[in-house]
Amino acid sequence: MAENPMLKFVRVEQSYPSKREADVRREDFREIADRFAVEKAEEQSARCSQCGVPYCSTHCPLHNHIPDWLRLTAEGRLREAYELSNATSTMPEICGRICPQDRLCEGNCVIEFSGHGAVTIGSVEKFISDTAWAEGWVAPLAPLADRGQSIGVIGAGPAGLTAAELLRVRGYEVHVYDRHDRAGGLLTYGIPGFKLEKEVVMRRIRRLEEGGIIFHTGFDVGRDATMADLREKHDALLIATGVYKPRAIKAPGVGSAGVVEALDYLIASNRKGFGDDVPAWDDGSLNAAGKNVIVIGGGDTAMDCVRTAVRQGAASVKCLYRRDRANMPGSQREVANAEEEGVEFAWLSAPEGFEAADEGHVSAVRATRMRLGAADASGRRAPEADPGSEHSLPADLVIKALGFDAEELPRLFDAPDLSVTRWGTLRIDHRTMQTNMEGVFAAGDIVRGASLVVWAIRDGRDVAERMHAWLKARAPVRTQAVVAA
């Protein structure tokens, strides 16, 4: 009787792909770890317990068929493993790189609870997807016959790209509008290359272009066309802009030169990586080289900023966060990577003000130590200032990374009737994912608030289903035969 290829977690230890040494990876923006060798991927996949209730899948926003493609990988059936992975995710190689698996699938792995260490799900997902690209298994889009209906997607981030792909394969003409000069949204300009190399994103976008999706980059809705213009042009619209408005700090001196927004800083760095002309990087305004850098915040954007500053040659990099390590929202793996690379964390610290030199450029951050009080409405203990603990930290560049809120889309899009919540996110009917405007749908962070890429992909998948159902019911008579598909 053949040996069961699975259930090897007792005798096979947990193992991740080896990371490059910190001193080496500080020098470039390449991803810090290579993918598994095939034998190692099969070995780690074989640790899966194939449990009857797969918590890894139920805690994945996409409900990926994780135990099934782990078993296929363990059996050496990599093409089938990729096809199953790709069946639920439009971007498995991206999720394998940037999902916080420690909080989602791996954090809920049954064998993690047993003390044997979770299956390294994200690394296996990255391995099988990268193998699929290398072997030519990633099929081009194969759209159904033209339905005679057109869709406009505003926003080329993960939610918009997912919906665009799924609607295009159903036979719709799809146009994607984005303010940036490259598609991808934060995948392209917000996430540094050491977490997600840009060619990984660009090849996905090329596949969509080759499949007939039409991209209009450098296109600002409200400037180049109003939303009313786009509604007139298309049979349905999807708003998937994400949230880009940085949360503010109210403190003396916050307007000093050298106190910058996280997204401005990351976009400048990523543009430089593409080889673009970036004056604010070249003149040092958005370049950490030789500077004492302080990043304020404790989320993944803050981790992206501190690790970018290290690679730009900062003299020192410090992260201020008002809670302790256990209560920070960012990935603990990212914190560990940052510490390995020389970042110093000032836990339970918050800015009180910013000091500036005579020329108006920031020279220090006045900070106070915090302590954790009673839990707030979210269940997390609220930070309180510790009286008498004020101190000053030298700084030449301060990066604010406190998260993002929705922009004022009704004003920006010249669509004053577009309904929003009190948080500025778009109000939708959650059964149909439609806004208060007929034929205008919304998905991703612009509905749920700042969240994870994997949730944006899930929302893009869901809204494609809702839009398809709505458009089928309104298809021209001449295309009824096609629409019945």
Automatic annotation (TrEMBL):
It comes from the Bacteria. The keyword Nuclease does not apply. The keyword Kinase does not apply. Residues 25-136 form the Dihydroprymidine dehydrogenase domain. Keywords: 4Fe-4S, Iron, Iron-sulfur, Metal-binding, Oxidoreductase. One of its GO terms (molecular function) is oxidoreductase activity. Signal peptide: none annotated. Gene3D superfamilies: Alpha-helical ferredoxin, FAD/NAD(P)-binding domain, NAD(P)-binding Rossmann-like Domain. InterPro entries: DPD_II, FAD/NAD-bd_sf, FAD/NAD-binding_dom, GltD-like, Helical_ferredxn. Residues 151-460 form the FAD/NAD(P)-binding domain. This is Glutamate synthase (NADPH/NADH) small chain. It comes from Sphingomonas jatrophae.
